[in-house]
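Protocol step 4 of 5: obtain the predicted structure for the target chain.
Materials: sequence only (see below). No template structures provided, no constraints applied. The aim of this step is simply to have a reference model before the mutagenesis design in step 5. Sequence pasted as it appears in the construct record:
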Amino acid sequence: MTPRMIALSLGGVALAGVLGFFAFRPEPVMVDLAPVTRGTLSVTIPADGRTRIRDIWDVASPIAGTAQRSPVAVGDRVLAGQTVVAVVEPVVPALLDARTRAEAEATLRQAEAALALAEAQLAEAEEERDYAQSQRDRARALVERGVASMTRLEDAEQILRTAEAAVAGAQSSRAMQVSARDRTAAALIEENAPGSRRAIEIRAPASGVVLALGAESARPVLPGAALVSIGDPSDLEIVADLLSADAVRLPPGAVAKVERWGGPALSARLKSIEPVARTEVSALGIEEQRVDAVFDILTPWQERQALGHNFAVFLRITLWQANDVLQVPVSAVFREGEGWAVFRVSEGIAELATVTLGQRGETAVEVIEGLAEGDRVVTHPPEALLPGGKVAERG
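Step 4 output (structure tokens):
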């Protein structure tokens, strides 16, 4: 073989080796990268909630009767002690048939006769008292002049006391007969008689707006029937529905961000947690113990005037927060044996790094050991990525 042919053969082998290297070398895995940073980290609990007015005044009917058509409508502003919010007329007197009316009239005449007798007895008792008093005065004068004994004066005073007691008894008897006469006369009052149906005007017990009406139109009502509800929409609080296991983790005075109500985010602070939980079944059919947590709204009313009673809101309740925290995206960490790990990228090579984690937020997690600020890690590591593998950042 000539030197020329040997050279050509060696060149062909070298070219084949270069082509084979480029043909079979591993392609880098396309990944998303994120830096390890320092900053503020918060651990929050999401919760659905609703607003409610702290003090709601429910106005009820004090008597049985007919509530007239409501003088106010839902949303009207009312002033305490001034605005009439309901008008109730007493029950219509029952109609009397001829027999019942005749009996009532006879009973009334009997009561009037008994009253006349009681007045005559009272007059007689008063006359006897006046006579006994004059006899006592005469006996006292005779005793003072020394022409009558003390015994006569004592007898006169005893008679006077007896006469005064008789007058008191006659007065009581007359009062009883007056009441009996009036009660009997009341049964004969006609429906349209003057003063028979005096309507009662009920005024607002507190200032605010009308939240609900028992009914807008006139209707019969019983004592205690709901007529109108009044509250102040500027005095709102929020009730959040929490798992009991989450509620016990809340620190006193925990702050929360109120979102998804239709306006900018509001601030709120934990006021109290209800002492009794309730059992509810979740959408997955699992029984849960849930409890209400009450929050005060810190944002001024002028910035949330559109928020009303029983509106739906969403809260992010802060459990823990710190500044200057070394953190990494939650999507970058994964289980590795008993601990946690990430893929740290250095010069295009993915290295498996074991990390110690701390507090976990919604999008980031605290890194205690294993990474340094400025390191770049793979987020959402694909299954094809192996330790030591080449990677290239996507897009």
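Step 4 remarks: Residues 98-145 form the longest helix (48 residues). Residues 18-24 have pLDDT under 50 and may be disordered.
Proceed to step 5.
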